[in-house]
Write a structure and sequence with these properties.
The structure is a single chain. This protein is mainly alpha-helical and 328 residues long. Helix content is 77%, strand content 0%. It has 14 helices and no strands. Helix 12 crosses helix 13. It is globular and about 65 Å long.
Amino acid sequence: MRRHRLSWGLALGCLIALGMAVAFGESAFDLTQYAAAIAQPGSPEGEVLWQVRAPRAVCALLVGAALGLSGAVMQGLLRNPLADPGVLGVSATAALAAACAIVAGGAAWAGVVEGSALIGALAAGAALAVAAAHLRSPEALILFGVALSSFAGALTALIFNLSPSPIATAEVMSWLLGSVQNRSWIDVAWVGPAVLVAAVLAARTSPGLRMLSLGEEAAAVSGLSMRRFKVLALLATALATGAAVAVAGVIGFVGLAAPHLVRSAVRGDPGRILAPSALTGGLMLVVADLLARMIPTDQELKLGVFTSLIGAPLFALVAWRAAREWRL
């Protein structure tokens, strides 16, 4: 019951944040302009609200939900509070694939860069699944993911180094900073189904995540097929993260922070944290994007930069608390 109240409260918060993200922006409207935008969606004011701000806000919600969901699945699968798609290399590999597509000129065709990012994320998920089949220890899998992330980051740096065009370099840099600026309803239609499929896959891992919290041997004794469970969890994570990176670039710390913000409300149950974590991630990113737009700067703050500025201290706090538990 407490979890349901939390989820409904977070869903209401997401709706309120979406409304604020659509209503407020760089251009301030008066009541007459708001009325015109609602009554006449084709008016200039309506175009700003429904064709510029609304799809951007919905993209932020979907990307945040995907990252929050991925973080919850990863932390439950690895039984580690520091795990998230960024730490395990899924985001870095997706960004590497997108960078390769941009430098190769793929940005000239619609969907090529986005599809490349998704393929990169799925490739990272496959690599993690293969590693998980051979590595029994969750810590070993985390180390493998860290190595994968470092290698993908090094290859991305190599692309920067060898890029033949300053324009392509600037495009890759803009992608890596993360943003939902200039996203349209086409992007929403693209990322929405991918996040929905990932959510369905993640929901099927919920009982396994709960059993795994008792230990891998206990979960196996209870009839859980560990290989099938890990593949399903990694596929859900790769699909959600790939869709998020494809639409918004690299945005860190949401997948790490969102599960921690709601974990106590579900009493640490990894099977019940999925929906609240996804809603928290969506709420965080909609609010962060609104704040990034509202802060008066000569150039708009990139969303990935803004979340990193907030998330880095939170990550340090989580690491400090985890270190205290390891010493006990």
